[in-house]
Design brief:
single chain; alpha+beta; nine-stranded antiparallel sheet; 5 helices
Length: 207
Amino acid sequence: SLVALALLLVLALLAARLQARRRGQSIIAGLGESVRGRVTLLRGPDAGGFVASVQPPPEPFLHFVVDFRAAEAYNLPGQLLNPFTHGAERLIFVAKLPTRPAAEIIWQEGQIPARALGQRERSLLWVQRRLDFINAEYAVRGTNTGAIEHVFLDLQTRFRPALFKISVQSDADPECTVVLRLAHFNLKELPALVTSLRGLGRAALRN
């Protein structure tokens, strides 16, 4: 009957939300093993995910925030399928540098840099590059971008196809953002990822 189907749907949603909460807890545990600082929850964990900061932040950052996003509350199909596919999940790292970055980079899956940068101030100073093995373009800015491009290549080599966005921009606050799709990411790689993010921050500061 319709009542029975509705009840089954409600139970399935509750189970999916509980699974999302447990998923968040496992990610928090993984973060705790990946950083030397203490993971402090700012929100959650709940069915929507969590937001946490690391204190002290990994060097060289002043602030380091991790945002885990599960399926949105209005996305019922996404909530139901997420425990099996993790397709809706995103893990977002946002970090602030101690000084203005000397080298900047921007890349996003399926988006050319010119479109991503739009008409921002000093946009003409960005140089567009291409990375053939991922068949994608990215943009850099700065007098010496060799180090940050090397870290970018390392990130793509080690964590693709989980990577969705890598951005270090002086006009953003905080300056560093890295977004992953967890459907393609092994949580056991969190320590290596945090190490690479530290390298990204150090490369951004290198003159």
